Amino acid sequence: MSPQSEKDRAAWLRGPSAQCEPAPPNGATDALTAWRLVLLGAPGVGKGTQADLLNERLGACHLSTGDVFRAAGSPSDCEPSPAMRDALGYMRRGALVPDATVWEMVRERTACLRCGGGFILDGFPRTLVQAESLQQLLDNEKLALTAVVNYELPFSEIVARLGGRRTCEKCKAVFHVTERPPKVEGRCDRCDGKLFQREDDRPESIKVRLEAYERSTAPLIEFYKKRGLLLRVAAQGSPDEIFEITMTDLKSRRAQQLAS
Ligand code: AMP
User: Fold this and answer.
1) d(Cα 156, Cα 57) in Å, to the nearest integer?
2) Is 165 a catalytic residue?
3) Candidates 97, 166, 207, 220: which one to mutate for ligand 1, based on the most atoms within 8 Å of Cβ?
4) Helix 128-140, helix 99-108: angle, nearest 10
5) Has 180 been annotated as catalytic?
6) Per-residue pLDDT tens digits for 182-231
7) Ligand 1 geometric centre to CA of 68 (Å)
8) Annotated catalytic residue: which of 161, 165, 166, 180?
9) Three-state DSSP class for 188?
C-alpha cells in the first residue's frame, strides 16, 4: 500500500462531495489488513506528529477532527455552515465543540472510516458519547479498531510543547520551534507552506483545553482498556523514538490478533 499524501484527505477535510486523489484502495480487498487506529492523549502530547509518521509508514489516512474545524475556518478551504461557524467559536476558546456537531461532521464522512486504506483518528473521539457513537457506527459497518494508542506525558511538559508548536497553513504538518524545528524558519519542510501558531495554542486557551481533556477525554482510557484495545506509550523522547515504540507495540498487537 503506498503512503497517502496530504492531498488524499480531500474527502475528510472538505466533506463527502470532495474526491480523494488518487482514489483510495477498495474497501473490500483491504478489510482485514488495513490499520484502524484511534490516538488518545492530552492536547500537545504529539498525536498529530505521530499520526503523520504513522500515515507515512502504514498508508492509513490521518483523520483529525481539529483539522476539519480549522479547514472550515479558513476561507480558502470551504464555506462554513452555520453549525461549523458555531463550532469555530468553541474551538477558539479552547472548549470542546458540542457532541452533536462533531458527530454530524464525522457521520457525513463515514466513507473515510470505510476506506480500504484504513484510518488514524486523531482528536476523535473526545468524549464517552462520541466513543459510543463511533463504536456503534463501526459495528454497523462490520469494522473493528486495530488498537487505541494512549500517549502519556506530564502536564508541565505539555504546556511547554503547546506554546512552541507551529502548524503548516497548507498541509497541516506540525513542527516545534525547538523540538522539531523546520529546516527553514517559518516554512514547512514538506510543502513550503507558511507555519503559524494556532489560536488555541495561546496560553489562555491551553488551560481551558487541558481542563476539558481531564474532564471529558481521560475517561476514554478506561473505556478502551475494558475493550482490550488500549496501548499505552510514554510520549517522552524524540518524535522518531516515540514512533518506533508505537510501531513495535502495534506490530505485536497485530500479531496477537492474527494468532487468536
Ligand atoms: P485538536 O486539533 O484535536 O487539538 O482540536 C482543536 C479543537 O477543535 C479542540 O480544542 C476543540 O475545540 C475542537 N475539537 C476537535 N475535535 C473535537 C472533538 N472530537 N470533540 C469536540 N471538540 C473537538
Assistant:
1) 30
2) yes
3) 97
4) 20
5) no
6) 999 999 999 999 999 988 888 888 888 899 999 999 999 999 999 999 99
7) 9
8) 165
9) coil
165 Cβ inside 6 Å of ligand 1: no
What span, in angstroms and rounded, lies between the C-alpha atoms of 192 and 196?
Answer: 12
State whether the beta carbon of 65 lies less than 6 angstroms from ligand 1. Answer: yes
C-alpha cell at 56: 507515512
Do residues 174 and 213 touch, judged by C-beta distance below 8 A?
Answer: no
CA nearest 54: which of 141, 158, 151?
151
Which is catalytic among the residues 14, 198, 232, 254?
198
Cell numbers for 233: 506509550
What is the reported pTM? 0.85
Q: Is the CB of residue 235 below 6 angstroms from any atom belonging to ligand 1? A: no
| Angle, in degrees to the nearest 10, between helices 239-259 and 47-58 | 60
Sequence-ordered list of residues with C-beta below 8 angstroms from that of 226, at least 6 positions apart, any chain: none
Rounded Cα gap, residues 53 and 34, in angstroms: 16
Angle ∠(224,26,71) on CA atoms, nearest 5: 65
The torsion angles phi and psi of 25, rounded to 5 degrees, stand at -60, 155
What is the spatial distance between Cα 46 and Cα 62, in angstroms, rounded to a whole number?
Answer: 13
Reduce the DSSP state of residue 46 to 3 states and report it: coil
Residue 126 annotated as catalytic: yes
What is the edge-to-edge ordering of all strands in the sheet holding 174-176? 174-176, 165-168, 195-196
Active site residue 14: no
What is the dihedral angle through the alpha carbons of 225, 228, 148, 72, rounded to the nearest 10 degrees?
A: -80
Which pLDDT score is estimated for 205? 85
